[in-house]
From TrEMBL, chain A:
Name of the protein this chain belongs to: Small ribosomal subunit protein uS2m
Function: Required for mitoribosome formation and stability, and mitochondrial translation.
Similarity field: Belongs to the universal ribosomal protein uS2 family.
Location in or out of the cell: Mitochondrion
Primary subcellular site in the record, as a coarse category: mitochondrion
Example of a GO MF term: structural constituent of ribosome
One GO term of the biological process aspect: translation
HAMAP family registered for this protein in UniProt: Ribosomal_uS2_B (MF_00291_B)
Record keywords, A-Z: Mitochondrion, Ribonucleoprotein, Ribosomal protein
From TrEMBL, chain B:
Species lineage: Eukaryota, Metazoa, Chordata, Craniata, Vertebrata
Originating organism: Sylvia borin (Garden warbler)
Pfam families per record: Ribosomal_S9
Alphabetized PROSITE patterns for the sequence: RIBOSOMAL_S9
Gene3D superfamilies: 3.30.230.10
GO molecular function: RNA binding; structural constituent of ribosome
Family: Belongs to the universal ribosomal protein uS9 family.
Protein name: Small ribosomal subunit protein uS9m
Keywords, alphabetical: Mitochondrion, Ribonucleoprotein, Ribosomal protein, Transit peptide
Region (Disordered): 327-350
Amino acid sequence: DDKLLTEPLKHPDFFSVKELFTLKDLFDARVHLGHKKGCRHRFMEPYIFGCRLDQDIIDLDQTMQHLQLALNFTAHVAYRGGIILFVSRKRQFCHLVESTARACGEYAHTRFWQGGLLTNAHVQFGPGVRLPDLLVFLSTLNNVFEPHVAIRDAAKMNIPTVGVVDTNCNPCLITYPIPGNDDSPAAVELYCKLFRMAIIRAKDRRRQSEAVEEL
Amino acid sequence: TLRLIGTTTAVLRKNAGASGSEKYTEAFIKKQIEEFNLGKRHLANMMGEDPETFTQEDIDRAIAYLFPSGLFDKQARPLMKHPTEVFPEQRKIQWGEDGRPFHFLFYTGKQSYYSLMHETYEKLLNVQKHQDQLVAQDLPLQKEKRNLAGSRWLTKIELEEMLLEKVSDDDYSRFIKLLQKLVTMPCADIEEKYIQKFSKEVPVQLQKVVIEPLQYDERGVAFSTGEGKRKTANATAVVYDNGTGKITVNGIDILHYFPVLQDREQLLFPFQFLGRIGKHDMVCTVSGGGRSAQAGAIRLASAKALRSFVTEKEVEFMRQAGLLTADPRVKERKKPGQEGPRRKFTWKKR
């Protein structure tokens, strides 16, 4: 059992996450398009490649690195049987995100976030609840263009976060930020596909390893 | 609901399950059911009846006999019911052995409601896709209009029962709007089965008041009866056909029973309205109330009796004239801190 858990940690890319996407895929899905210059957040400046006709362009090389780290981390969490919670407050992608979560066998929360969900879980749900082990944000802002409450709550509860940060978002409290577009349908579909494939791969690997161990 | 000071809304919102969820496991409920069945057999033995055919009513009677209670609240008295009725269904633990919740929307808090919204939105997308396909193939969209008049949507309480979870007013209205949007689409016929789960038939025919047919007494004269109430007065009237306009109340002629003209006018109003003053005889009995109340009661009773003699149109005219409606006004109670129902005590500045 120990061997099952320690074995993946020895390799830098145990689940070969780099093969899931290429730079061209990201470009075709319009991941590099940011908001206008006026909406730019100060802490996003390192991730921005440049500005054309007042629209910010995100540096896809950095996005590639961050995306690879984030997918690797998600895959490891899924391998160890952790609970992954997909969060997004964008109304257009609510259905997509929920279906992705259902397909992976993980959980989603694309609705109104009640105040004490993470911090007051034992009162809300009942004693003995298990909190999520990873929060994946497909969009870090809520409908009022403010940072989602879940980022702060996850930081309070020591839950690691993976999040797609756009040019108007604050990447501070997110453990694995992914600078990229969070408004285009093509980009969000790409992210959903990548996360889904990573999680399913990790779970299959786990089942294979357990079967091998039993033998 | 009580508003506790110094607590959050989460505390108010938590259901019995949140504090007692350890008890409501599957094993616990099974144990409760076994204990209930054993107890039922013991009770039957105690009462000297057959344990096999001991129904719930017998149990209730036996408990009421063995543990007589003078408490007013029926729910506070000793109770022995099947565990599925006692323990609310929803509050079983929602996660498995390893701690992973069963439902993929568990962390939202309102999993059944949001999964319902998710499904409904999926149906909407299906319909849109179908529509797009038809438009792409240049086929005409179906125009069969769904009959909206005879059906109504589920009420909030019915939805709560269906989902086994509390639904707020905003959530309910949002769900209904989504359903309406789904229904107004042209190709919504594909999802008929799904929509029918949330709509109920409204019986189009309102309760039609059945007008009794005429009865005939020994002499062959047609008559009919009617009952009326006003304040505390109860009256029954028997109206005979081929009469001379004689009216008797409690065996006394109206001129002697109602000396006041206003009361007699009230009695004659139904006949005057229909233009049948000299054509009918009436025998009435009345009790309770005062002078005016008795007159009003007899008026209502005679109007009800006259419905059998008259065409449907004239019945509708009578209804619109207010002859067939019982007057709901009763004496209002006196409230504490006031002189009467409305009059307050004299206000003194000092």
